[in-house]
Design brief:
Oligomer: single chain
Shape: globular
Structural class: mainly alpha
Order of helices and strands: HHHHHHHHHH
Radius of gyration: 19 Å
CATH superfamily of the largest domain: Ankyrin repeat-containing domain
Number of helices: 10
Distance between the termini: 36 Å
CATH architecture of the largest domain: Alpha Horseshoe
Strand content: under 5%
């Protein structure tokens, strides 16, 4: 995607529905070059440039000729700080690119747990993930499977990753209105904070994996 970010086509070409021309949009009257620079800065993880352009009034929702915004690039790259900055300046977490992808969908496809959490907190619609069949529950399960294999992960690294997974699932389940399950995650989060040994962290990881598997089974039953 990084390479694709540099591709562009000249003005005046016809585009498909919902895909904007380069520099066309609410911020076009500012400076078209700034719109492109914002996307390029987001794609190259240049936080300072993104912040400066946003403070100058550059439209964070302006899309390139493939419908991709700065938020699409930052979400795909997993840059949580830039994602939050864009959201704070009015970026739309539900804006679709030319292929129908939202930033949340791209973050899920590229396994960026903290970004998914930030997007959910920023108002991203959870149903945007349904068409790909990859929800935060699926991602959590695959991440936990890796952690349970216990291959060269330090105690702090495992604790941090488990914490990030819990935070993601809490936001996801809250958006779905599953408050009872969210309370169970709150309990797991409290237990995680009290851990001091690898065995204790592993125990929380196993409990979280069981919770995730059960939640996936419930989700499948609801769709029948």
């Amino acid at each position: 995607m990084a390479a694709a970010a540099q591709q562009g086509k000249g003005p005046g070409r016809q585009r498909g529905p919902g895909v904007q021309e380069e520099g066309v949009g609410p911020g076009a009257e500012l400076e078209p070059a700034a719109l492109k620079r914002l996307r390029e800065a987001a794609n190259s993880n240049d936080l300072d440039t993104v912040q400066q352009l946003l403070e100058d009034g550059t439209d964070p929702c302006a899309a390139d000729d493939k419908g991709r915004t700065a938020l699409h690039f930052a979400s795909c790259n997993g840059n949580d700080h830039i994602v939050q900055l864009l959201l704070d300046h009015g970026a739309d977490p539900n804006q679709r690119d030319g292929l129908g992808n939202t930033p949340l969908h791209l973050a899920a496809c590229t396994n960026h747990v903290p970004v998914i959490t930030t997007l959910l907190r920023g108002g991203a619609r959870v149903d945007a993930l349904d068409r790909a069949g990859r929800t935060p529950l699926h991602l959590a399960k695959s991440k936990l499977n890796i952690l349970q294999e216990g291959l060269s992960h330090s105690l702090e690294a495992v604790r941090l990753e488990v914490k990030q997974i819990i935070q993601m699932l809490r936001e996801y389940l809250e958006r779905l209105g599953r408050h009872e399950q969210k309370e169970q995650l709150d309990d797991l989060c409290s237990r995680l904070q009290m851990t001091s040994t690898k065995e204790q962290v592993d125990e929380v990881t196993d409990l979280l994996a069981s919770f995730t598997s059960l939640s996936l089974q419930m989700q499948k039953m609801e769709k029948r």
